[in-house]
Amino acid sequence: MVRSKISASLMAAVLAGMTLSGCSALRGSDDDDKRNLERFTAEQIYKRGEYELENSRKPEDAVFYFSEVERLYPYSEWAKRALIMQAYGHHRAGEYEEARGAAQRFIETYPGDADAAYAKYLLALSYYDQIDEVGRDQGLTFQALVALREVIEEYPDTEYARSAILKFDLAFDHLAAKEMEIGRYYLKRGHYAASVNRFRVVVEEFQTTTQTPEALMRLVEAYLALGLNDEAQTAGAILGYNFQSSPFYEDAYRQLRGRGLSAEVRGESWLTNVYRQMVQGKWL
């Protein structure tokens, strides 16, 4: 038993030494490394890329070595590994377009590979991580949602799908927040009809997001300003049924009570249909 433990330890040390020697053989000056890579095996160049990725503050240095593996040994197993690592290295460097390019090439070249799910996830992540502040253009958010949905649908049983679901919900909420920002802008300036249109989008298309309670409260505010009391009361009723513990309901209730009104379904409007769907479960 003791002998087997010693042998295992010795073997681990030998393997570690081989790996380190492979990297050290490549560690001359950077210029020498990049000029003389033809002298090294695909594995040695790949290991140097791994070393740079772990120890350098510049992921783009690692990307260089991974790309050289693909260039010098294009049909090897190491080239396949290097391509997915290029995508990862570009992403770490914040080079999102390049990351997408490498990930897409992997997916197209090795569609049935076990790492295709990770490549697809990296592709989606390269869009997701570019989602900027709410006030910016949301085109990338739409692209992130599309790419994340593909991960969820194509690789449902993977860890990447589970992560993609969480990110999808956050990106979806981000779009709703954009509508809310524009709606609040119109509301503040007295453009009540325009603000209603934005809040309506949130209530009808983004019901599952965290923005819905405020959207309903803002609809109460906007409709009261327009003198459309039935719509204001119906919005208050939906808010009260679904989000009664929310501070937005308290605000809406206060506004309605200030006009001698209550939160109840009144009249026939798009909000009446929403009430039937959300509260009574009647989908028309």
From TrEMBL:
A single BP term in Gene Ontology: Gram-negative-bacterium-type cell outer membrane assembly
GO CC annotation: cell outer membrane
Key words of the record: Cell outer membrane, Lipoprotein, Membrane, Palmitate, Signal
Membrane topology: Lipid-anchor
SUPFAM superfamilies the UniProt entry points to: TPR-like
Highest taxon of the lineage: Bacteria
InterPro entries: BamD, BamD-like, TPR-like_helical_dom_sf
Residue span, Outer membrane lipoprotein BamD-like domain: 41-235
Residue ranges of coiled coil: none
Family according to the record: Belongs to the BamD family.
Name by which UniProt lists this protein: Outer membrane protein assembly factor BamD
The species this protein was found in: Paracoccus saliphilus
